[in-house]
Amino acid sequence: MFTKRFSQKTTKMTVRKKNSDSPSLLGFLLLTFVIFVLGQAGLNFFSGISVFKSVLLGYLTSVVSIIAGYYSLQWAFNKNAKTFYIVLYGGMALRFLLFIAIMFVLYLFFPEWSLTAYVISFVVFYVLMQIFEINIINRELKRNKLV
Questions:
Q1: Contacts of 28 (CB under 8 A, 6+ apart)
Q2: Helix (H) or strand (E) holding 99
Q3: Which of 22, 37, 125, 129 has the most C-beta neighbours closer than 10 Å?
């Protein structure tokens, strides 16, 4: 498949082939979902602890975070460096505030849910998804020959 891209220095449009070994967002989300299902099954089977809602909420918060990060980075790579860094760091801050807000709502309105399970689930999946996001940044930097 080919994508069209405008160069920042010229108004000429270039056509380049998409990298076939680039990570796929859908494939990565599928992989994390499998990890979620296996982890939840193992947690229920081996310990008898049922924290499905809390772990699911942690997973979904991470998924929303990585999707927002993925698309904002895809948009920001076509902008200047200042805009890129505003989107990168501003997006990370907004996603962190989302996590804190959900944790606060969970604590206040759903005290029967396990806050610990939510935090652990969020952190585990967020770390996995940050690895994916860093790979995207590195791939784009190499593709644009900025590294």
A1: 66, 129, 132
A2: helix 81-109
A3: 125
Task: Give per-residue pLDDT as tens, 37-61.
Answer: 888 777 777 666 668 888 888 888 8
Task: State the angle between helix axes of 25-47 and 52-76 in degrees (0 to 180), rounded to the nearest 10.
Answer: 160
User: CA 129 to CA 23: how far, in whole Å?
Assistant: 12
CB 129, CB 95: distance < 8 Å? no
How many whole angstroms separate alpha carbon 96 and alpha carbon 86? 15
Contacts of 36 (CB under 8 A, 6+ apart): 55, 56, 59, 125
> Which phi and psi (to 5°) does residue 113 adopt?
-80, 150
pTM: 0.69
56: β partners: none
Q: Determine contact, residues 137/129, Cβ cutoff 8 Å.
A: no
Give me the amino acid identity at 66.
I
Please, what is the Cα angle at 15 between 11 and 20, to 5 degrees?
Answer: 140
**Residues 63-89, mean pLDDT to the nearest whole number:** 87
Dump strand ranges (E) for 18-91.
none
Q: How far apart are CA 145 and CA 45, in angstroms?
A: 49
Residue 129 dihedral angles phi and psi, to the nearest 5°? -75, -30
